[in-house]
Amino acid sequence: MEPAVWPLYDLRITTPRLELRLPDLDRLSELAAVAAAGVHDADRMPFVAAWTDVSPEERARATFQHLLGTVAGWTPRKWSLGLAVSWEGKVVGRQDLGATDFAVTGEAHTGSWLGQAYQGRGIGTEMRAAVLHLAFEGLGARSMTSGAMADNARSLRVSEKLGYRPDGREVLSVRGEARDHRRLRLDRAGWEAHRTVPVELHGLEPSLALFGLQ
């Protein structure tokens, strides 16, 4: 991809162990394979949308199509940045950052998933810290939101470590059942007070206009 056409392909976020970037077709194929291999146990559903309740082949295809769709549907007013997360040279998961009217609100939201084979290593915390650095330090965010099911202790612990505070709850229908979903919010002061992961941004400036920023 020629960077002048879509400079987001040149954006990289690095931490001591990870690299996050918009995947080219090769990395996107790797990401699809990670999704196919499994993201969670079959008897639980950590996501609001039960996108993993399909065959491995369908998960791979949906992952591939969805990320390409975020590129195709991007506008400076409404955008969703889907980053492939690499650890030890392997793609291991996906970290998202999205917003509507970010230039006005200064608020964005995050979402993520990590291949089941790579969970329990602190990667989830490190990749969220990376994208929070992009939001607050790189894009000048004022606040960030996230959420998790009440029984998703691992995700809630990650948010707590990074300084998020409770922001209400809601009951959602997932797999035809009522589920308790917790909303979370992080302001700039909370982020600064809980920063522990060194993060570096590379190649951001050419993409600022795509985020609605001048």
- Order of H and E elements: EEHHEEHEHEHEEHE
Assign the CATH architecture.
Answer: 3-Layer(aba) Sandwich
Q: What's the overall geometry?
A: globular
Q: In percent, how much strand structure appears in the residues?
A: 25-35%
Q: The CATH topology is what?
A: Aminopeptidase
What is the domain total for the residues? 1
Low-pLDDT runs: none
Could you explain the architecture of this structure?
InterPro entries: Acyl_CoA_acyltransferase (IPR016181), GNAT_dom (IPR000182), Ribosomal_N-acetyltransferase (IPR051908). This is GNAT family N-acetyltransferase. It comes from Streptomyces niveus (Streptomyces spheroides). The structure is a single chain. The protein has 214 residues and is of the alpha+beta class. The protein has one domain: Gcn5-related N-acetyltransferase (GNAT) (Aminopeptidase), CATH 3.40.630.30. 30% of the residues lie in helices and 31% in strands. It has a nine-stranded mixed sheet with strand order 7-8-6-5-4-3-2-1-9, sandwiched between helices. Helix 4 links the parallel strand 5 and strand 6. It is globular, with a radius of gyration of 16 Å. It starts with 11 loop residues before the first strand and ends in a 12-residue tail after the last strand. The model has no long low-confidence stretch (mean pLDDT 92).
